[in-house]
Design brief:
Blueprint: H1 15-19, H2 25-43, H3 55-59, H4 65-74
């Protein structure tokens, strides 16, 4: 099977876990570039990309974005990171 992580902002803070598994340095860099894009995009929008979890996530027991991002990254399993798409 193939695992797809479709919400790049959901892995903010744990990208190092995925770049380590990239099949090439270029693929790992594409992930970092995508996250940098999200950071620039969120700065000009009514969006959150600052390491904080929303109120609903806090009420559900998450203390910080790192915990949320760990869960999101784990959904991809342990397979190599083969591609990053816009």
């Amino acid at each position: 099977g193939t695992a797809i992580l479709s919400e790049t902002p959901e892995i903010h803070g744990v990208e190092f876990m995925l770049t380590r598994r990239a099949i090439t340095p270029a693929v790992g860099q594409k992930l970092l570039d995508r996250l940098a894009w999200w950071e620039r995009y969120a700065a000009g929008q009514n969006a959150q990309f600052n390491g904080m979890v929303g109120h609903g996530n806090q009420a559900g027991g998450l203390a910080n974005i790192f915990e949320k991002s760990l869960g999101s990254a784990m959904k991809g399993g342990t397979t190599p990171l083969r591609a990053v798409y816009e």
